[in-house]
Task: structure prediction
Amino acid sequence: MHTNHTIALPDRPPLILGQTALVMGILNVTPDSFSDGGQHNLVASAVAHARQMIAEGADIIDIGGESTRPGAETVGVQQELDRVMPVIDALVAAGITAPISIDTYKPLVADQAIQAGACIINDVHGLQGAPEMADVAATYGVPVIAMHWQKDRDRSVPLVDDMLRYFAATIARAEAAGISRASLVLDPGFGFGKTLRENYALLQDLQHACPEGFPILVGTSRKSMIGKLLENQPEQRLAGTIATNVLGYVNGGHIFRVHDVKANRDALRVAQATLYGPPAQLE
Ligand code: 9MG
Result:
C-alpha cells in the first residue's frame, strides 16, 4: 500500500519513507505565534516548542515565517529572514539534529536557511514561483516538498487532471535545474484553491492526484476543510485532523505535517499496526 523511498539529506541520515509515517511538526514564527515578550522570548519559546515536538516524535521540524492562511499578509524577504534565521541559528546552537525544513517560496530565504542548517525546502508554490528556487535546491542538494497551489485554476478542468499537469511542470522544472526525482516529495496542497468537496475527494483519491513514484505529504492540520465540516475553531480540530491523517495514511501518504505531534503520531502508529501488523518486538 505504501511505496518505499529513501530521500538523501546533506550531512545527515536519509529520510526513510514507506510503511512508517513520518511526522513533520509545524513551527510557525509569525508575530501571532508564541509569546509577545520580545525577540529573545520568541526565539526561546520556538526552541522549547521544537524540543517538545521532537520529544513527542516529530521526525522533521518545519519552520515558517509567513503565514499562508487565507487573508494573511505577505512579508518581505528581510522580514521573513528576521523571523526565521534567529530560530534556525538557535536550534542548531542547541544541538537539535532533527532535520529542519524551511517553509518558504522565496529563494533567498531558502538559501540563507540552508546555509544556517535547514536541509529541506517546503515550497508551497511547488517550484513554480521564483525560478531560482529550483537552483537553490540543486546547489545545496536538498530535497524539496513541492505543493500544488494553482491560483487561477481553470475550474472546467477536473482537479486531478489539473494536479497531474501541475506536478508534471514541477518535475520538469526540478529536472532542468538538476534536482533528482528522488529528492522530490509531492503535496496535494489541502485547502489551497480547492473547494470543501474537492479537499475530501482528494483525501479519498490521494494517490491518483500525484504522479506515481513520488512520496506524498499530507497537510490538513487544523485546516478549514475540518472546521467548515465540524463548525469549530482551529484549536478544536484535533479529532478532525487525526481522522484526515489516518485516512491519508491508509490512502498512501508518507509524511504528515501537524501542529499536534503526539496525538497524530499515536494515531498513525495504530493505523500502521492495523495495515501491516504491530512491531515484531511486541509480539
Ligand atoms: C506551509 N503550509 C501550510 N499548509 C501546508 C501544506 O498543506 N503543505 C505544505 N507542504 N506546506 C504547508
Observations:
- Residues 5-278 form a domain with the TIM Barrel fold (CATH 3.20.20.20).
- The pocket of 9-methylguanine is lined by residues 64, 68, 103, 122, 124, 145, 147, 187, 189-190, 217, 219, 257 (CB under 6 Å).
